[in-house]
Amino acid sequence: MLEPRQLNDADHSILDVLAEDGGRMRPVHIAEAADVERSYCAQRLIRLLEHGHVSRPYDGLYVLADDPRRTHE
Residue by residue, what is the 3-state secondary structure of 9-41? Predict the structure, then answer.
């Protein structure tokens, strides 16, 4: 799990987009809504996926799984 301090501006934008739009989107739409280059968005999504913050139930669809900006009690 990533800590909030380990997130960059693109990560915050991507997480905001997923949280606002019900948590399921394709990378191209995430990049557009987050105002991030597509290739960079894809890299950040992979990193978030590796740390369990997003999941990929289907090829090309990302789902917000666990927002690292929220504290866990």
Answer: HHHHHHHHHHHHCCCEECHHHHHHHHCCCHHHH
pLDDT in tens, 17-36: 999 867 789 999 999 999 99
Q: What is the pTM of this model?
A: 0.89
3-state SS class at 44: helix
pLDDT-derived band at 4 (thresholds 50, 70, 90) equals confident
Strand, coil or helix: what is 48? helix
Q: Decide which of 3.30.1490.110, 1.10.10.10, 3.30.70.1450, 3.40.50.300 is the CATH code for 8-64.
A: 1.10.10.10
Residue 15 in tokens? 């997480």
